[in-house]
Design brief:
37% of the residues lie in helices and 26% in strands. It has 273 residues and is an alpha/beta fold. Strands 5-2-1-6-7-12-11-8-9-10 form a 10-stranded mixed beta sheet, with helices on both faces. Strands 3-4 form a two-stranded antiparallel sheet.
Length: 273
């Protein structure tokens, strides 16, 4: 992909659907014989807000009540302990090496420190409130971390093709294509390569794709991309997409477009440098 994966780092917080992220990270750790590392981000923005004299919290059944910084800190620590236990349980189920840490930062920012050999997993869906309602998350504003690999997961979804959008034959496109092929092979899914019209008709590009996919047991096809980002988004929405693999600056580059694709298709988003 981009070298040997040594550690799957799962980014956790008090808002996201941590079970989905942990399970996705554990499956990847098994696939690559990697260690599992959990990082719980204590939201410093929430702690600052709780320190204000007018801060209130609303809970089902109890209504509104005062919120202090000490209460917020205790609640975050309780969420962190829940995350640690879930991570430990997943590691035991899959017989994985694991570790866990707590860091302070903004959940929307790239606060998880990574190194070469790390693959970061985060869930872009928030925990449900009641039966159906979910608040929006800021995960979509994140870009690939220093390691260059970020998987934004959704709650479990069965099936679907792996879709990737390529604009050239440069290094970033090669890495994205290799990663997409690995995911497609593991899931026994079809691989759809969407590219600029000039590349779809280019025999050299077709040969390059074929050479890179020769090592993988995948069914792949190449098709031209629609002419503008909005049309590309509509096209992807019409596909049975289980995973969308993109370079960090590739179309659809707008985080809101990626978020809508994930929300309406249920697909995961893999972002790479």
């Amino acid at each position: 992909m981009t070298g040997e994966i040594e550690r799957i780092v799962v980014s956790l917080d008090a808002v996201s659907e941590i079970s989905a992220a942990i399970e996705a990270a554990a499956r990847l750790a098994v696939r690559w014989n990697a260690a599992l590392h959990g990082v719980f981000v204590e939201d410093e923005d929430l702690l600052r807000l709780a320190g204000l004299p007018f801060a209130r919290q609303v809970s089902l059944g109890a209504g509104a009540e005062a919120l202090t910084a000490a209460q917020a800190a205790r609640q975050l620590r309780a969420f962190a302990e829940t995350a640690r236990r879930e991570l430990a349980a997943a590691a035991r189920r899959h017989d994985l090496r694991w570790s866990f840490e707590i860091v302070h930062g903004a959940v929307a920012a790239d606060t998880v420190t990574t190194a070469a050999g790390d693959f970061v997993v985060a869930c872009a869906a928030s925990r449900p409130i009641g039966a159906h309602f979910r608040i929006d998350t800021q995960r979509w504003r994140a870009v690939a971390p220093g390691s260059g690999l970020l998987l934004l997961t959704q709650p479990a979804r069965a099936g679907g093709a792996v879709v990737t959008v390529l604009h050239d034959r440069e290094g970033a496109s090669a890495r994205v294509l290799d990663a997409a092929a690995q995911f497609a092979e593991t899931a026994a899914a079809d691989l759809l390569v969407i590219c600029a019209t000039k590349l779809a008709d280019d025999k050299l590009f077709e040969a390059w794709v074929g050479e890179r996919l020769a090592a993988y047991a995948v069914r792949a096809r190449i098709e031209p991309a629609p002419g503008d980002p909005a049309a590309l988004q509509r096209h992807i929405l019409g596909l049975d997409c289980g995973l969308l693999a993109l370079a960090v600056d590739a179309e659809p580059a707008d985080p809101d477009r990626r978020r809508e694709i994930a929300a309406r298709t249920g697909c995961d988003i893999l972002v790479m440098r």
